[in-house]
Design a protein that fits this description.
Rossmann fold, elongated, single chain, 160 residues, five-stranded parallel sheet, 7 helices, alpha/beta
């Protein structure tokens, strides 16, 4: 019985070390992909979210790569900023004190000003699942609750 337990321990140790290696490899690959797609540029993002600290890691990642990120806390502030500056894309959360579908409402307002600017909603799981179709119908390019997915969707590399 002891021999079986020792074999199981060795197998588990081996599996854990292989998983750790895979995690490192995936992390390196993701970092390389993100670094490659976020080449230094003069890209500018408008990010509208009443809880900006939730996005601080992603904002810092963009800024480290030369992307300018303007953060506004409400749709009204976002619309005013959008009208007075040129942006390559917009990211919004979904729910704010102004409404549970504030991201969709903002997309509709932005689309009336500029039907072409890429618009993404970065929100919680529930909204990403349940408001997906309504968001797309409002002119949102994509809605996601995943930071990794958001990064892969954003047109930030050269030539985009």
């Amino acid at each position: 019985m002891e021999e079986v337990s020792e074999q199981q321990r060795r197998i588990l140790d081996d599996i854990q070390s292989k998983l750790a290696e895979l995690e490192k490899q995936l992390t390196k690959n993701d970092a390389a992909r993100v670094t490659k797609s976020l080449t230094p540029s003069t890209k500018r993002i408008l990010w509208v979210d009443d809880q900006p600290k939730n996005n601080s890691f992603l904002v810092a990642l963009f800024e480290d790569r030369g992307v300018k990120v303007d953060v506004e806390l409400s749709s009204n502030e976002g619309i005013e900023k959008f009208k007075s500056h040129s942006y390559d894309m917009i990211i919004s959360d979904m729910g704010r004190p102004e409404g549970g579908k504030a991201g969709i409402d903002l997309a509709l307002k932005i689309r009336s000003v500029d039907p072409q600017v890429p618009f993404f909603i970065f929100c919680g799981n529930w909204a990403a699942r349940n408001l997906h179709q309504e968001s797309l119908q409002a002119g949102v390019n994509e809605i996601t609750s995943s930071g990794t997915t958001l990064l892969s969707l954003l047109p930030l590399s050269n030539g985009n």
